[in-house]
Amino acid sequence: MANNSDAALQAKIAGYVDILAKDPHSTVFVSLSDAYRQLGRLDEALDIARKGMQGLPWFSPGHVVLGQILMARGETGEALGCFNKALTLDGESIAAFKGLAAIYSQKGQTDIARQVLERAEQIHPGNSSIQHMLNRLSDVATPEPDLEPEPKTVVPKAEDIQPADAPIATTTIAELFVKQGLLSQACQVYRDILQANPDNAEVRIKLIELEGRLSADSQVEAVVEQEPLAVTTAEAEPLATLQRWLTAVRLRREHVQKDSAGHR
Questions:
Q1: Confidence at 190, pLDDT banded by 50, 70, 90
Q2: pLDDT (tens digit, 9 = 90+) per residue, 101-133?
Q3: In degrees, to the nearest 5, what angle opens at C-alpha 68 toward C-alphas 165 and 155?
Q4: Do 154 and 43 share a structural domain?
Q5: Helix orientation angle between 169-179 and 94-106, rounded to the nearest 10 degrees
Q6: Does one domain contain both 11 and 66?
C-alpha cells in the first residue's frame, strides 16, 4: 500500500515539474513541495517552497506549506512565523490555524492551542478537522500535527485576499489573555512571536507595554502592603492632633452659642 502511494506521488510530482517548467511562477510549487514532504524528501521540499515564495510572497498557501515542511524538520520557531504570515494574508486559513495549534500543542501549551482552534471554529463552525483536533487535545497531552493541505493550484482573486492587518491567531490569543487579566501568559505568547519574527516591531511594542504594566502592578501591590504600617506609625500622631483640634473647635462653638442665648 505504501509503495502504491509513493508511486502515485511520484506520478503527481512528474506532472507538477512539467507545469513549473512551462510556468516558473505557477502556484503548483505548493503541491510539488507538499508531495516531496509526504515522501520525506524534506530538503527538496524546502528548496522548492522557498523558491516559489520568492516570486509569490502574497500567496498564503505557500506560507502554510513552508510551515508544514519546517515543522517536519523540527524547526518550529520558523514554522510559527510562517503560519502567522499565512494568517496575515488570509485570516480564515484553516491549515494555518491548525499548524499553529499543532506547534503550541507540541510545546505543551495546550490552553493556547485550544484557544487557537476555538478561534478557527468560530470562523468555520462545524468543520470536522478542527473539531477532530479539539477532541484530540482533550484526549492526548501533545497530539501529533493534523494538517491538511489547502487547495494549491488556484490563484486567489485580489478581492479574496485579506488586508495586511487581518487578525493573527497568536496575537488574538494574547489579546484574549490581556482581556482576562492574564498578563504573564500574554507576554509569553508575544515572546513566542518575536522568537519566530524578531523584526515584528508592533509585537515588540505590545510586549514592552505589558511588561511595564506587570512591573507597575507589582510596585502598587508593594505600596498597598506597606500603607497600613505607615498610617499607624508616621501618620498616627498628626491624625490624633487633628482630631483633638476639631473637638476643641466644636466645644468652643457650643460655649459661644450658650453665652449668646443667655444674653438675649
A1: confident
A2: 999 999 898 998 999 999 999 999 999 999 999
A3: 55
A4: yes
A5: 60
A6: yes
